User: Which sequence fits this backbone?
């Protein structure tokens, strides 16, 4: 971010961080459908051409996840 600020001024890092916050808050997919990949955040951060171990193995392959309906109820705060 320092290099961006020196090259383009203060507006570019501020704009980039706002876009990253919007992309991270808007991305969500239920775990039963594969979970969120974070693709938009990776593109904005410049990591779209990288493939890491965590992209393939997230560590929760052996755990049984919640079903779709209970996950949506928890996300929408319908658990009364």
Assistant:
């Amino acid at each position: 971010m320092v290099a961006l600020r020196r090259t383009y001024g203060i507006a570019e890092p501020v704009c980039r961080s706002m876009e990253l916050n919007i992309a991270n808050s808007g991305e969500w997919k239920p775990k039963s459908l594969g979970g969120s990949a974070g693709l938009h955040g990776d593109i904005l951060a410049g990591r779209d051409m990288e493939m890491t171990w965590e992209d393939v193995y997230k560590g929760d392959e052996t755990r049984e996840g919640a079903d779709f309906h209970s996950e949506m109820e928890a996300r929408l705060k319908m658990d009364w």
About this structure: Residues 32 and 66 are 7 Å apart (CA to CA). Residues 11-26 form the longest helix (16 residues). Helices lie at 2-8, 11-26, 39-45, 53-56, 68-75. DSSP finds five helices and no strands in the chain.
